[in-house]
Each structure stands twice: as structure tokens, then as C-alpha cells.
Amino acid sequence: MTAVDFEGRKPSLLEPDARTKARNAAEKRFRMLGVAAVGLGMLALVFLLASVLGNGLSSFRQTHIEMAIPLDEAKLDKSGARDLAAMAKVTTVGYGKLIEGALQKMLEDRGVDTGGMKPKDLMGLLSKEAAADLRDTVLANPDLIGTTLTFNAMANGRVDGYFKGRVTMESAARDSNISPEQLVVAQRMADAGVIKTGFNWKFLTNPDASELRPESAGLGVAILGSAYMMMIVLVLSLPIGVAASIYLEELAPKNRWTDLIEINIANLAAVPSIVFGILALALFINFLGLPQSAPIVGGLVLTLMTLPTIIIATRASLKAVPPSIRDAALGVGASKMQSIFHHVLPLAMPGILTGTILGLARALGESAPLLLIGMVAFVKDYPSSPPEGFFDPASALPVQVYSWTQRADPAFAERASGAIIVLLVFLLTMNAVAIILRRRFERRW
Amino acid sequence: MTVGLLSLVLLGLAALGFIMGRQRAVLSVKGDTRELHSLPTYYGATVALFTAVPAFALMLVWLLVQPVLIEAHVTGMILPEDIGAGSTRDLVMSDVRRIAGGVDVLVARGTPEDEVARLVADPAALKTRLADAGVALAADVSPHVAEAAAVYRAEVATGRGWLSVSALGLAVAGFLLAAMRVTPAFRARNVVEGFVKVLLIGASSVAILTTLGIILSLVFESWHFFRLYPAKDFFFSLTWAPKFGGGSDLGIWPLLWGTLYVSFIALVVAVPVGLMAAIYLSEYASGRVRSVAKPALEILAGIPSIVYGLFALMTVGPFLRDWFAQPLGLGESSSSVMTAGVVMGIMLIPYVSSLSDDIINAVPQALRDGSYAIGATQSETVKQVVFPAALPGIVGAVLMAASRAIGETMIVVLGAGAAAKLSLNPFEAMTTVTVKIVSQLTGDTEFASPETLVAFALGLTLFVFTLGLNVLALAIVRKYREQYE
Predict the structure, then answer these.
(1) Could you tell me the fold of the domain covering A219-441?
(2) Which SUPFAM superfamilies does the entry link to (chain B) (predicted)?
(3) Tens digits of per-residue pLDDT, B427-459?
(4) pLDDT for the residue B275
């Protein structure tokens, strides 16, 4: 009797029957599903990065209006004694007048047709920060008085947005802060080479700015605040985490107490970050009376959040050190402590450092608990240097992103994406360092 | 003496103790260190530890307790009439602290103490002087508040003084005690190691203390909340409408509904994609593909959630609104449950995939070989042998992802909106427990109204919820793992 397939045909080795075909097709489909899933994940990553880069890269460029300002001694320093206290009496209004005159003169010299625009509207092309900027420059260097300073005034956020394609003539017509006529003049100025676009260092160094002057908002305070918090996290979580791991991995007897600690650490790693924020608010701020918005509180709560990560990584690298090392140390008469601190710990150190860097990277990107301890506050002053600076109000990179997304002006959305780029660059660097450390010190026993 | 200076002095004493202890030990055996019980360094370390550790511990406790005590005392000094209309005791207290801080600035700038005393008696002059020093006060200073500030300042100074005296005393006592005990027979190493062990145990109990702190702060403040607001209304009311004037409805159901809805959508995105990715990477992919794709997926897990939040707000939200919600007539809002859910799903893909990957890899090869031997294709093996064997572990992974979804904050804050609604439409803005915790607690520092305290009750609910899921997930994963070991 010959075998027959479902359709009653004779089977052939060269030609698969229908059922085999169906099964092979199912196999292929399943495989394709797998490829699609991996592809989808990668695609999401690409989209995410493209969206952030596309929205944020423009915040690293800024349009400036270049002009020569004669710093008139009669106006800026009436006494002529270069006495800073007397000079400080000239307010930004005074400097604004200087800029106004210089701007008009420059436009006449260059032959830019302003269409009879009022000086006030012309000044509207400049950032409201320009006068304060000029004043700071002069006060920082009184010798400039009497000379003619080539001054790069920041353009207004809308003008900046016009050259970056964010603001159009149509949107300007609906905007109370800028008019299409002003943009026409700005375009003429750009054609005459007066308005230039350059790299925006101030985005990295300036403090946050108010709703009205997005062009001068920067990340300076946030970067400093994040750096302070990372310092606190590193100084606290590395020793505490390593000490805890040493105890649990090397010394602890197996009893209820150590079991409890272990379960606790596993659970802490999975507690939602906002709950840590609530803890910080109730314990550090309400109960202990530490100041709000201060890096010390942020650093403490991030330490508590990072500890489980560091402990888990440290225990893994302690476990990876072979017992023969310990036995050899004990064999020549070292105590248990000596074997750990002189032999096991140095060998485990690269792994511990890698884990610590990864823990720090996570802490750097954390924002939810910081919202609760008031780090969203508007901070204009740089915190002083540590340790006093730990108690000054500051901001943090991820929280700065959040507070910029809450503002109405679309220029802040661009800045938020720019801040994300800075954050991602920091994270990437830290991860790269961790990978290099791991590669470099990886050893197999 | 400032805290920094005191710490430096203590460290200096400890260093001195180390050198002296070591020298004393070596001298006591006339340089022949073989006579000593321990290495000479251990004798030095004993003295240093006994000098520094108790003193620092005292300093820490003191610094934590002193402000609480002084605060309690000075707050008691403020009379009801000092508290102006629209003000509270806490606000007056912060004025007191500002004045005290301002006076310190004045003194640091060279104002003599007797002039400060005169200023305190004359609040108006005090206010102008403080304004000159850069400390701006909103309200007029009442004489009583100025006096309270002076007392506050004096008590802080006295406290500091006593702290310096007692910490230094303790350090010297420890120094002498330890130095006296340095003899050749003294088991210095055992003492030092015992000390270190205590420190190690202390470090590992930080985890316990943190959990305790979380539970205590949540329970304590929630209890405050439930005294002001009936628990029945919180757990059974279907409206969430906080009004900061009072008389608000604080039912948790709209928030729970939003949370579960967002998490559900996130899991619908993350579980199939993550699982298929894990199966592909562990069963099909070549070594080269795996070495590229796995880290690439794990990058998704390393990206901070604020980045996903911004992605949801600026890219995904408007996209879903323009291409789905508006054409389908389902809504006009760019922040919606769908936005937050999809973006959160993307974030959770790597959690599901790497946990499942581990679990699928742990299924013994013999099971697969057996399946191939009876003629099954690879996909049939995966579907009918590997997957069922890995199922408990995968369930654990999904539960962990769910607990992350429930606790996630930034994506929903930026992506899901703030309207507390019980709706089925996924393109409508809804809100979650975490969003409301943030919005009830930011900007307001007063903890007397149910509108702010409710955040702690919400936090407690969230904590219990996620803790339950995690414990369940851990239990399932552990039980499963034992099968092959």
C-alpha cells in the first residue's frame, strides 16, 4: 500500500505535500513575527532618538545681532572714578538706550531699510536680556568704558525661531510678541549680514530664564545641581553599598535577619520612584527640616534609590571572585576581614565600579522624586560651591526638562529637547566608561 | 565652631591617634613588633576609631535632633496675634528663620553684636538693615517675631557651642581610653575587625531603614489624611474633584481606572513585542544579530523616563491625535491614555524581553531536542514545548512589567493629561495615581489640608499595589527556577 497525502495524491520527496507546506509557512510566519518584534523595538529606538535630536539640536544654535556700541563715559560713569558702586547705579534702562542708539546707527550705516519702524519695535527684535548682558559685561570690566565695544546681542526668541523655521509669517500675524513687519526687517538684517547664527554656549552655562525670554534660558544651574547630587550619591552610596554587600555576601550568617535584608533589597529595587519622593518629602523636608529644592535632599533620596542597584552589582562581582583566593589568604594566616579587604575586594573592584557608574547613570536621569522635593522651583542663582552649595536651591537636568515642557512658549519645547540631548550625552558617556571598564578588567578564573 | 571645622578637628585628632597608638605599641615592645598581638597599624586604627566614630555619631544625632527641639520651642513662642490674616504659624516660623539667617549675614559683615541687640528691639530698623543685606522680608516684622528670631539665633549658637564641647570631649575621652589600652597583649585586630563588622551590619540595615521610613511616612501621613477625610469616601467615591478651598471629592476610582487603563495598553504593546523579540533572539537569531540587537533593545531600558515623556508629549501625542483620534472622531486631545500607554509599552519592551530571554534560555536543550526528534518544526517546538515550560517565568516577568507600568510617573505626567475621568475612550485624556501625587504635592508646602495629604494615601495605595505584584512575581519566578536546578 502506498502512502497518500490528504488530497489523495502520491507523495513526492521532491515536492512537499500541502501539510508540510502549511507547517513550513507557519514556521516562516513565526520567524517573521520575531524579526518584526525586534525590528519594532529598534525602530522605536530610532524614532525616539530622531525625534529628540530633530527637535532639540536647534537649541544649540542661536541668532545674534552684532553691533558696535560706543560706551560713553558721560553716561555710564559720571564721576569718571571707575567706582563700581557708583557705576552700578546705571540701570538696564540706561544700557537699553545705548543699545537702541547703536542699533539704529548701525542699521543706517548698513543701509538696511527699516520701513520707518519705531525704535521700540526695532528693540523688540532683541532679547530683553540684551541690556542686562551689556551691563554685566561693563561692570565686570570697567576698562571698556570710553571704547567702542563690538557687542553680540541675542535676538528675541521669536526672531530666533523665525530663522530656525519655528516661527512663520502666519504665526507671527497671530502673535502679540512679534509682527510680520518686524520679521521682514529681521530678514533684511540677515541679508545685510547683521544677524548671524552661531553656536549657543549660553545654553550650557546660563541659568533658567523667565517665560518672556526663552532665548536666554540655559542649563547652567541644572547641570551644577545634577553634578552636586551625583557627588552626594557617589560619596554615600558607594561605601554604604559596598559595605552592605560585603556583609551580606561574605560575613552574614544565614538567618532570618539576613533573609529579611535580602528580600528588602530586592523589593526596594522595584518600589516606584515617586514613592521615594514621598519618603524624602515626609522624612527629610517635613521631619528633619532640610531645605526644599536643595541638592542635599535630592542626593539623599537618589542615594537610597541607587543603593539596591549597587548592592546587587557588588554582590555579583564579589561572588565571581573564586573561593581559592579566599582560601589562600586564610591559609597564610590572614583573618577573614583581611582576606576580604586585602584580596577579594581589590579583585572585585572593577565590577563594583561598573555597577556604580550604571547606578549613577540611572540616578542622573531620575526626575519623579525630585519633583516632590521642590526641585521644579525657578532658580536663577547659581548655587555656591560645596559643601554650602548642597543646601542652596538648585535644579536638575531631568527636572529642568519637565519644567520647560510646562511653559507655553514653543521655544521652551525646543530647549527641553536640547536639555534631553545634553542628558543623553552624559548618560552615553557614563555607559561608555562602564563598558570600557568592564572590557578592560574583565577576567575569567 | 562650625560643623566643618569641628569635623576637621575630629579628623585631625583621629589621625594623631593613629600615629600615637601605633608608636606607643611599637615602643611598648622596644621595636620588636613580633612581640605584639597584632600588626602595629591595628593599634593605631583602634585609637583612631575610638576617637572619631563616637564623636561623629554624636554630632550626627545632635544635628538631626537640635533643629527639631529648637523649632518646637520657638514655635511655642509665637503668639496667635503674631499670625496675620492669611498667614499660618509655619509661614511666621519661616520668617523667623529668615530673620535669624539675615542677622547672621549682618554679623558676618561686621555688625557688632550689641548693635544687633538694639536692632532686635527696633523691628522697623531691623527690616531696612536686612533689606540692605539682601534679605527681603514681605511682611512687617512684629516685635515678638523679632524677639523669637533672636531667641532662635541664640539657641542655635548655644546648641552649636555645646555640640563642639561634647563632641570634642567624647573624642578626647575615646582617645585616652583607647591609648591606655595599648599593650603588647591587647587584641587590637579583633577590636578593629569587630568595629568594622558593626559598621558593615549598619550599612546593610540601611535597606531595612529605608523600607521602614517609606512605610512609616506613608502610614503616618495617610492616617492624618483619614482623620480629615473619611476613608469610605476615598475608597468608594467615583469622583475626583479637589478644590483647594475645601469641600473636595477625593475618590480614588477615577485615578485607579486611569492607572489600570494606561498599564493595560502598555502591556498590550510590550508583552507581545517583548516576548516575540525574546523568542527570536534566543531561538532563531545568529550570534551576530543577537550581539547587536540585544544591547540595542537594552538601550531602551536605560533611557530615562523623562525622555519618553517628552517623546509622548511632542511626537506621539500629536501623531495619534492627527491620524487616529480626529479622523475617527474620538477626541481632540493630544494627551491621552493611548499616547501614554503606547510610549510606556515601548519603554517596557526591554524589561519583558530580557527577563523572558533569560527564562527561555534556562529551558534545557534536551526538551527541544526531544521535540525536534519527533519531527516538530522549530516554531512548533517553541510554541508547544519551550513556551509552556517557560510560562511561569514569563508570567513573573509580565507581572514585574505591570508593576513598573503602574508606578511610572513621568510618561503619564507628560502624556496622559490631568483630567480624572471614568471613560472607555482610549483617546481621551485621563489621569493616574502617580500624576495626582505629583500635582497634589508640587508647589504647596503646607500639610494640613486633605487636598495635599491625599497624596500620601495615594502613595500608600500605589506602594501596596506594586509591592503585591512584585512579591507575587518574585514568588512565581523563584518557584519556577527551582525546577531545573
Answers:
(1) MetI-like fold (1.10.3720)
(2) MetI-like
(3) 888 889 999 898 888 765 566 778 888 889 999
(4) 94
Q: Comparing A151 with A395, which gets the higher pLDDT?
A: A395
Quick one: how far is CA B119 from the chain centroid?
Answer: 43
> What are the angstrom distances between the C-alpha of B401 and each of A250, B345, B413?
32, 9, 19
Cα A22 from Cα A356, distance rounded (Å): 52
Please give the Cα distance from A50 to A64 (Å, whole number).
Answer: 27
Per the CB < 8 A criterion, the answer to whether B414 and B388 are in contact is: no
Q: What are phi and psi of B205, to 5 degrees?
A: -85, 0
Q: Which of B293, B303, B407 sits opposite A272 (nearest CB)?
A: B407
Tell me: the pLDDT tens digits for B58-81?
Answer: 988 888 788 778 877 877 777 777
The ipTM, to two decimals, is 0.88
Residue B386 has what DSSP assignment?
I
- A252, three cell numbers: 552574614
| Whether B301 contacts B318, CB under 8 Å | no
In the three-class reduction of DSSP (H, G, I as helix; E, B as strand; rest coil), residue A62 is classed as strand
Cα–Cα distance list, B114 to B102, B110, B121 (Å)? 16, 12, 11
For residue A397, the model assigns a pLDDT of 93
C-alpha A436/C-alpha A432 separation (Å) is 6
Give the nearest partner residue to A247 out of B193, B204, B293, using CB atoms. Answer: B204
**Amino acid letter, residue A186:** A
How far is B125 from B115, CA to CA, in rounded Å? 11
Q: Which domains does chain B have, with CATH numbers?
A: 3-186 (no CATH), 240-480 (1.10.3720.10)
Query: What distance in Å separates residue B67's CA from the closest CA in chain A?
Result: 7
What's the angle, vertex CA A307, arms to CA A306 and CA A309, rounded to 5?
A: 70
Burial grade of B310 (CB within 10 A; 0-12, 13-18, 19 or more)? buried
C-alpha cell at A239: 561605601
Q: What is the CA radius of gyration of chain B?
A: 32
- Nearest-angstrom CA–CA distance, B354 and B351: 6
Residue B238's pLDDT is 84
Inter-chain touch B304–A376, beta carbons under 8 Å: no
DSSP track, A157-182: HHHHHHHTTSS-HHHHHT-SS--HHH
Listed residue (A361, A373, A386) closest to A228, CA to CA = A386
Q: d(Cα A328, Cα A330) in Å, to the nearest integer?
A: 5
Name which of A142, A125, A138 is nearest A66 in CA terms. A125
Shortest Cα distance, chain B CAs vs residue A275, angstroms: 6
Chain A contacts of B208, Cβ < 8 Å? 260-261, 264
In this prediction the pTM is 0.86
Of B217, B285, B383, the CB nearest to A278: B217
Domain boundaries, given as residue ranges, for chain A: 64-198, 219-441
Please provide the average confidence, as pLDDT, over all residues in chain B. 85
Contact A51 B272 (CB under 8 A): no
pLDDT band at B485 (very low <50, low <70, confident <90, very high): very low
